[in-house]
Recover the amino acids of this structure.
């Protein structure tokens, strides 16, 4: 599947580094999402964007900063992360930001914070 | 707050045996979605149920939505190795969110 792509696929970073995760969707969708998935927790929604405007922020720490320059691209900027931020970060998109539309996920970025 | 509980957390089966996962919501749902995540993969949408008492089938997979629209189940008949993975249910929450169950991991015994 190439509908939603994410780069990089794996990332190791120190707590003082700054890095960015990139997501691109080729499905013509209007909503994009960032999720965090860790071994012990179900999918945690971090951010929702609709038509490039952020509509939901689930009380995510400020060390995570999203950016949505257009409806096809989504970034997650990372800085001064903690080891507990190590997880799989998944990007998803849907036709509209409504709960009646299925979400299409990218392959994820496996992040390790050392 | 709204919760979606999913059980069991794991299910070990012999190949050929059946598998069932159950999803229960603390509130009435307008719809429920099911996803499958293969090991090392990402969640992939399987189906959405909307109507009370709805039953849908996809080959060996049978999905049900309860009459009260607060619970749902996924049943797989005669499991195969290709069925291995984690199955998630998700229901609508507030503000465009899907509330996800914790998932049921299907493991085929060697």
């Amino acid at each position: 599947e190439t509908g939603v792509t994410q780069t990089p696929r794996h990332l190791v970073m120190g707590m003082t580094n700054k890095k960015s995760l990139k997501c691109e969707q080729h499905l013509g969708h209007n909503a994009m999402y960032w999720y965090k998935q860790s071994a012990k927790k179900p999918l945690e929604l971090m951010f929702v964007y609709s038509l490039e405007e952020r509509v939901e922020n689930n009380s995510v720490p400020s060390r995570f900063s999203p950016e949505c320059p257009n409806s096809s691209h989504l970034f997650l900027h990372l800085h001064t992360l903690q080891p507990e931020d190590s997880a799989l970060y998944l990007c998803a998109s849907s036709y509209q930001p409504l709960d009646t539309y299925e979400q299409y996920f990218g392959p994820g970025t496996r992040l390790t914070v050392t | 707050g709204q919760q979606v509980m999913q059980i069991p957390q794991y299910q070990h089966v012999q190949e050929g045996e059946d598998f069932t996962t159950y999803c229960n919501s603390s509130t009435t749902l307008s719809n429920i979605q099911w996803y499958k995540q293969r090991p090392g993969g990402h969640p992939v949408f399987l189906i959405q149920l909307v109507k009370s008492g709805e039953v849908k089938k996809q080959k060996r997979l049978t999905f049900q939505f309860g009459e009260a629209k607060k619970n749902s189940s996924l049943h797989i008949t005669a499991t195969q190795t290709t069925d291995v993975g984690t199955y998630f249910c998700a229901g609508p929450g507030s503000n465009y969110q899907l509330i996800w169950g914790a998932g049921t991991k299907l493991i085929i015994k060697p």
